[in-house]
Design brief:
single chain; 368 residues; mainly alpha; Rossmann fold; Tyrosyl-Transfer RNA Synthetase; three-stranded parallel sheet; two-stranded parallel sheet; binds adenosine-5'-triphosphate; binds magnesium ion
Length: 368
């Protein structure tokens, strides 16, 4: 079996550096490794509508933002299929059939859904579509038989749900000749990248929380955000010993800094460990650390920003890329859906044997 990647993002805003270290950076590396046969990158607009159903324009306007971020970050339409979820109606059909394989209590136990319900104040009235989005995510992953899904840590419960659906589908409908493929999550190794906190120190940088450094932010915006970032509230004087735990500036350095950066921007230290040791001992001010972080993040974002400015000049071409990608994804989805329907015995018109056997059964039973 070949190696296939599926992953994606909700068009609820521009992509931020949490997406970048959690998934996007890795996708580009995997794409360029040449080790994968197929790479599908999905803009999950239908999923975004499950909690933004009353704001369709937000979703509509952000399709292009996410697509621009993709190509600017290095996703190459010649190597990766970029597509829009809602344009593949087969995904909705798959979702409908998978719904039979999941219980309400199983969905209620999903920790990511639980915390998102809280975040969106849905406790009193949860839209059914939102509640069931882990099932539609199983359709997204299985339509192309993806076996590798590069995601941030918050997506692990979704991957578990998908694996259960795959397992159950194959056990019930295709025990001898499995139709669906179990995916594996690919979470970044570095702890800081699994769930990058927000600039406000909150547990997760998230479009919905407004605590993001966006890939498309200008150099000035990035600098302002970094210089006003949350650090260690107990580190009041430069001479005070500082704390690393919960110190967002150091978490970002964990995610971005390499030894070569120190040579370039902060030669007082050979590497991050040395800098951390000085900080915890006392005598190193936050401003110096933030300046280093700013230099490193700017270096990483500058080429992305430049490429974005180029791509922004030809918006119709970006839509063209998405249209072509959606056409390609639809073909693959139609193939999987037909295998699913055959396994579920709902392929009546394709099954000549069924029609033949039933005509046999009724032959001669006619009363006249
Ligand atoms: P929303 O608030 O609308 O849910 P989001 O910022 O959580 O937006 P998603 O589109 O839900 O972004 O996530 C897309 C991908 O990026 C997922 O794989 C997710 O795990 C990853 N991701 C999102 N935020 C972070 C983060 N702060 N750190 C690491 N990975 C992240
Ligand atoms: Mg999210």
């Amino acid at each position: 079996m070949g190696k296939t990647i599926l992953t994606g993002d909700r068009p609820t805003g521009r992509l931020h550096i949490g997406h970048y270290v959690g998934s996007l950076r890795q996708r580009v590396a995997l794409q360029n490794s040449g080790e994968y046969d197929k790479i599908y990158i999905m803009i999950a607009d239908a999923q975004a509508l499950t909690d933004n159903f009353d704001n369709p324009d937000k979703v509509r306007q952000n399709i292009i933002e996410v697509a621009l971020d993709y190509v600017s970050a290095g996703l190459d339409p010649a190597k990766s299929t970029l597509f829009i979820q809602s344009q593949i109606s087969e995904l909705t059909e798959l979702t409908f059939y998978y719904m039979n394989l999941v219980t309400v209590s199983r969905l209620q136990r999903n920790p990511t859904v639980k915390s998102e319900i809280q975040l969106r104040n849905f406790e009193a009235s949860i839209p059914v579509g939102f509640f069931t989005y882990p099932i539609s995510q199983a359709a997204d992953i299985t339509f192309c038989k993806a076996n590798v899904v590069p995601v941030g840590e918050d997506q692990l419960p979704m991957l578990e749900q998908t694996k259960e659906i795959v397992h159950k589908f194959n056990a019930v409908y295709a025990p001898d000749n499995p139709v669906l493929v179990e995916p594996k999550a690919l979470v970044p190794e570095a702890e800081a990248c699994k769930r990058l906190p927000g600039t406000d120190g909150k547990a997760k940088m998230s479009k919905s929380l407004g605590n993001c450094i966006y890939l498309a932010d200008s150099a000035d915006e990035v600098r302002t955000k970094i210089m006003s970032m949350y650090t260690d509230p107990l580190h009041l004087q430069v001479s005070d010993p500082g704390h690393l735990e919960g110190n967002t500036v150091f978490t970002y350095l964990d995610a971005f800094a390499r030894d070569e950066h120190f040579e370039r921007y902060c030669p007082d230290y050979a590497n991050l460990d040395e800098m951390k040791a000085h900080y915890t001992k006392g005598g190193l001010g936050d401003v110096k650390v933030k300046k280093l972080l700013n230099n490193i993040v700017q270096e990483e974002l500058e080429p992305i920003r430049k490429r974005r400015a180029e791509y922004e000049k030809d918006i119709p071409e970006i839509y063209n890329i998405l249209r072509k990608g959606s056409d390609a994804a639809r073909e693959v989805a139609a193939q999987t859906l037909s295998e699913v329907k055959r396994a579920m015995k709902i392929d009546y018109f394709e099954d000549m044997e069924l029609i033949r056997a039933q005509s046999e059964k009724y032959k001669g039973s006619s009363s006249c």
